[in-house]
Design brief:
Length: about 210
Amino acid sequence: MSEPKPISIHIPPDLKPLIVPLRKFLDGNQVRPKYDHLVVGACIFAPSTPDHPNPRILLVQRAATERTFPNLWEVPGGSAEYSDPSILHSVARETFEETGLRLTRVVRQVGDGITFTARKNKNWIKLLFEIEVAELHGVAIEEAAERDFSNPAPVILNPEEHQNHAWVTEEELSHCTVTSGPYPPTTEAQLQGLRQAFALHDDRREWPEPSEE
């Protein structure tokens, strides 16, 4: 896939501390522990329309040949790289590489991150971000009127990594577990992250605090 054309990207002030190189992030600081690896994920919601009033999030289905989590569903994303100017650049790069969509705005970070241990007991963290993309949120009014919003954006998948994509409502997600449903996610933690993304996207609700039990 060719490199995307340069576009203007809006980053909210509270995420400015994440405009740091990967090495600096992994090394940690007084308020953030040290990690060995960072994965980023992009939560992309389609704009609401009269025919599709409920929020829909973009999910991609992992290829059947993937070594881990084959055929399961996730948000677009992947590993941050040392060559990326910053963590948020990693989000833009991974989004484009996996979907062909160009990040224009980072709306918010979703949660505090999903931590896990993998590959020789290395400490990993996955950060989720709600973002907007040029192909959805930069559409002119007259173009939007003619668009088929049942498939709202021209998603271009890398067949070596993903085999399908879908725009999924919260209701559809409620019928999914890691072993069942139309869009079984890779892990329970990712399912919780998706639920939190919907809650934060919907300004009418607040995400409940985690139980201390």
